[in-house]
Amino acid sequence: MSNTKLFLKSGHPATLFAAFLYFDFSFAIWVLNGAMGPYISDEFHLSAAQTGFMVSVPTLAGAFMRFPLGVLSQYIGRKNAAILEMSLIILAMVYGFFFVHTYSNVLAMGVLLGIAGASFGVALSLGSGWFPPQYKGLAMGIAGAGNSGTVLATLFAPLLATHFGWQKVYGFAGLMMLLPLFTMIFFAKEPPDAEHQSFREHISCLWETDGWIFNLIYIVTFGGFIGLSTFLPSFFYAQFHVSKVEAGQLTTLAALAGSVMRIAGGYVSDRLGGIVTLSVVFLLAISALLALSAQPSLAVTTVLFMFCFSALGAGNGALFQLVPLRWPLNTAVAGSMIGEIGALGGAILPNAMGLSKSHTGSFAPGFIAYSLLSVCVLIVLRVMQGRWVGRWMARGGRPLMNAPEPVAVSARAAGVP
What we know:
By secondary structure, this protein is mainly alpha-helical. 78% of the residues lie in helices and 0% in strands. It is built from 19 helices and no strands.
């Protein structure tokens, strides 16, 4: 209890809550087409490969929008960037409500849903910007737990689509977006950790090896989370012939486990270190993916997905405990870049699963391929940690007790001119 009070007193809880709501509702809208995948695929008679592509479009679009929004936030402020993005999301939902009637319209709407997916780096940096290094992991975990928006989408979108039609769900989503928008306007405050840097310094993480190692890790943890989240409703519907609403409910169980564990991942990483936490969750996720490739019963599959999502969610929290340690001056930009590449990994997974089913008649090769990728990335992580200890983190991934000034890990220290 005392630790909780210290945590809350060390930062600005209202801004953290506003950042959580912003990311939560944005995430829900980002995965709407995935949550309504069975309805859309039935209406337009889509193959498994077409469904995989359809649900991956918002993920791809959101991935490409993340980094530009992160850079913009360094100039207009993270709060203003969040307000601008949410306003655009509402306009996109208006388009969806009135003009989406064909498969081509659905793909176009997927691009607009990508606007919501751009929120990641801004939300996490805004929410954690008021908190000191020893609480960054927990603050990042709480803000990042907004990926529980998947739960909102998979739980409510199928119910609304059943009663009102799937096109009308866009309208409901637009109305609900007003809640985080007004919360952000009236309660959030811009964090004091902004640093005036040149554009080249802001984007220096693009040229740094560490940034691309983080990208690889996030392709597995977040790419797996968002990729499976968008594809699971269609997977349960096709694999086990459950109802569309039941498919959404089963996905909700897995997504909820992953969202809760993101907070736990950040909390544990503050104490044990992000590297230690990542190493453990990678092994757990790999085990779950290999078990899923055996195509067990519905009950076992659901439990394994909950287990896998829990590991991936904790991995997301663990990685972003490390980000502000490595890039203390431009966390929003670095986080957006890492989030962008990770989301691209999420776009690959639904397509791989759809193609696997179309060409082999089974989803098993998709699970095996992703588990092998996870093994490779875990090996890279273990090799790289030796270079990081003492430079910007302590052993295991904890903050350095006598941390250098932020400029020591800035673009200049990294050798960027």
